Amino acid sequence: MASRRGTAKTRVQSDKYSVLLPTYNERENLPLIVWLLVKYFGESYRNSVSDLHVVPGTAYIHGIQHASGNFIIIMDADLSHHVSKLFMVKQKEGGYDLVSGTRYRGDGGVYGWDLRGANFIKQVLLRPGASDLTGSFRLYKTEVLKKLVEQCVSKGYVFQLEMIVHARQLGYTVGEVPISFVDRVYGESKLGGNEIVSFLRGLLTL
């Protein structure tokens, strides 16, 4: 028993987290969000962050390929997502392959948007076994994320949805933690007419 405890403790201490920040017209936010990440991890998870990648949305895969941690945390760079240890805690509790932030369970919520109708349609069509399909605040095991990216063909908002669908198809375990999503503080939204049409096409394809 003592030996197993020692092994588990060593594994937790050796875990490393890469943080990936896909950006879109949000460079005003970067000094603040990087400061928040450094401050938070410095206080709560000292020596656990192996690298931080700030990449354009189009270079998403490049950031994943160069991540050195055994876990990757992905969060928006528009300050919609608040730095939280709940993802790491949840992953350790259940050994999940990925942990997704959900706006539709527990204390989760959406402020500045109303996305319940769109989420209901996705649930009815896909029945994915996850409550929030398009949220981008997630923690992945690095090898799982790389495998899922290989499977995905979508771009834009439907990409996040496809990741969850493939995760279920491949038998990966998905945990969820409630999050509060607040509309962007700075930067320009990339949700336009073309993105909406692309999302609907991708949804029907899946």
UniProtKB/TrEMBL annotation:
Enzyme Commission numbers on file: 2.4.1.83
One of the GO biological process terms: dolichol-linked oligosaccharide biosynthetic process
Source organism superkingdom: Eukaryota
Subcellular locations according to the entry: Endoplasmic reticulum
Example of a GO MF term: dolichyl-phosphate beta-D-mannosyltransferase activity
UniProt domain Glycosyltransferase 2-like: residue ranges: 57-148
Keyword tags: Endoplasmic reticulum, Glycosyltransferase, Transferase
GO cellular component: endoplasmic reticulum membrane
Pathway assigned in UniProt: Protein modification; protein glycosylation
Chemical reaction(s) catalysed: a di-trans,poly-cis-dolichyl phosphate + GDP-alpha-D-mannose = a di-trans,poly-cis-dolichyl beta-D-mannosyl phosphate + GDP
First-level EC class: transferase
Annotated function: Transfers mannose from GDP-mannose to dolichol monophosphate to form dolichol phosphate mannose (Dol-P-Man) which is the mannosyl donor in pathways leading to N-glycosylation, glycosyl phosphatidylinositol membrane anchoring, and O-mannosylation of proteins; catalytic subunit of the dolichol-phosphate mannose (DPM) synthase complex.
Subunit structure: Component of the dolichol-phosphate mannose (DPM) synthase complex.
Family (UniProt): Belongs to the glycosyltransferase 2 family.
Protein name: Dolichol-phosphate mannosyltransferase subunit 1
Species for this entry: Cyprinus carpio
